[in-house]
Amino acid sequence: MTSIRLLVADVDGTMVTRDKVLTARACVAVDRLRRAGVELAITSGRPPRGMAMLVGPLGLTTPIAAFNGGIYIKPDLTTVIEQNTLPRAVAEEVVDYVLSAGLDVWVYRGVDWFLRRTDVPHAAHEQSTVRFPPTVTRDLHGVLDGAVKIVGVSDDPPVLARVEAELRQRVGDHVSAARSEPYYLDVTHPRANKGVVVRMDARFLNVPLEQIAAIGDSPNDVLMFGVAGMSIAMGNAIPEVQRCARYVTTSNQEEGFAHAIETFILRDAPGARPDQH
To answer: What CATH number does the domain containing 165 carry?
Structure first.
């Protein structure tokens, strides 16, 4: 049997295609994974409701780490196991600074998503991804109690990088700030990061870290790579991310998630040779 007992997987850019489709081959690979004695756990910057599309097709039974570990929730997407919310004063400072830097700001709290206007870049795409609409509010300060994630949005990568660095200087002891996409800067509680997610999944499921594999495509997935026993970067990941992983699979447009399971995780499992495609 393979030495890996748990695969912790990112969602966007990893498990689903560019069009946010979970392929049949991915579902078959997960089924083969379980038959080989390996469980699957997912983690994403998405809110809990944004992962409803995955629960049934993948037969998920493990805790889901939404908001990059801001909330750990059961697959019923209503039963919260544990959550890490941002302190109110810190959340206010983050919102005020990010707005002053000229970025759009989105706030996630519980099952809701708040923004000031819907006609801003990437809002429609986000709604399509998470499959529920935002709530419009003119006063973001009014929705910061219990906030789990604040997102700065900009199509100017150098500006986003500067804001990320500045936030780490200002409130780095109180938040985790990392880009989940070239245009998204996610700000969460310090314990809401994917490295901690792997450790929490190890605790929840009683699996040693060295028997966990992690797969992802974004800079914030690198934190998983440094903790898990096996690390796999997607072929669509930037070179800096790929260099941090032990293995690199094909892209999410080329069944990279399924290919990683078949090629790297199941290769030593008796009776679980990769299918031919």
So the answer is: 3.30.1240.10
Give the tens place of pLDDT for each residue, 207-246. 999 999 999 999 889 999 999 999 999 999 999 999 999 9
pTM of the model: 0.84
Residue with tokens 């032990």: 246
Residue 276 lies in a domain: no
SS3 for the chain is CCCCCEEEEECCCCCCCCCCCCCHHHHHHHHHHHHCCCEEEEECCCCHHHHHHHHHHHCCCCCEEEHHHCEEECCCCCCEEEECCCCHHHHHHHHHHHHHCCCEEEEEECCEEEECCCCCCCHHHHHHHHCCCCEECCCHHHHCCCCCEEEEECCCHHHHHHHHHHHHHHHCCCCEEEEEECCEEEEECCCCCHHHHHHHHHHHHCCCHHHEEEEECCHHHHHHHCCCCEEEECCCCCHHHHCCCCEECCCCCCCHHHHHHHHHHCCCCCCCCCCCC
Residue that finishes a domain, picked among 137, 154, 188: 188
Domain assignment present for residue 11? The answer is yes
